[in-house]
Amino acid sequence: MATVSQIQRLDKLAIKRYGVPSLVLMENAGRAVAEEVKKSLRGKKKPRVCVVCGLGNNGGDGFVVARHLMDAGIPAKVFLVGKARRLKHDAAINYQILKKMKYPAVECGDTKFRGSEIARADVVVDAIFGVGLDREIKEPFRGIIEAINTRARHVVAVDVPSGLDATTGNIYGVCVKADKTVTFSFPKKGFFRNHGPRQTGKVVVVDIGIPSRLKNGIS
Ligand SMILES: NC(=O)c1ccc[n+]([C@@H]2O[C@H](COP(=O)([O-])OP(=O)(O)OC[C@H]3O[C@@H](n4cnc5c(N)ncnc54)[C@H](OP(=O)(O)O)[C@@H]3O)[C@@H](O)[C@H]2O)c1
After folding, report:
1. Scanning 6, 58, 72, 118, which has its CA 20 to 30 A from the CA of 213?
2. What angle do CA 79, 143, 127 make, to 5 degrees?
């Protein structure tokens, strides 16, 4: 099990010391989540997915998820909470790939956020915040997380349910209630503390290509 600072250090070392490109980690992460979403969709004749992305790398993972689903013929509607010009670097690259592939994301604040899309989807992918969440959640994120919690049928969280402190298990005011959390490299300590167990649903740990000699220090 890992804390947020351990996982951030691990990712940083993989990138800086071993030269694993951060985009490769993002691709591996998003692809693994897409596979888990497909498992959640088994048996659906005309599956529909909605992917809700934030502006950081967690949102970038969400764009990769959406791309792999759409490439597999599964319609995925992508919402970006915020303006695309404010996306972090790797996330911006994956946003541009989606645009070039004519799978554009809808930029939204609370007014443009379509709760009906959330309600219609068989699976909602929560890619709003991951381990980078560090303060109380305000609008428009708050209302969107509440809409997911009240309207979604099945939620798959990317790495961490948005709103959960993945070290302490405390909540930053509001938090996605996931049915499944697909988390990277290690389960996070906060999944098993305080509010964590109620928010994550089933926890699935996937490998994203962090060199094993770096992972050996954490158990
Ligand atoms: N490349 C990698 O190393 C790597 C590897 C594996 C997985 N990942 C993925 O990337 C995630 C971490 O990415 P990240 O560090 O970019 O963090 P993040 O979890 O994507 O969150 C960071 C973003 O959220 C914003 N934010 C944080 N708290 C907020 C709040 N309360 N209200 C509104 N905005 C808030 C930040 O804005 P400000 O800039 O304004 O603070 C920033 O845009 C992981 O959980 C995983 O999904 C990355």
Report:
1. 58
2. 40
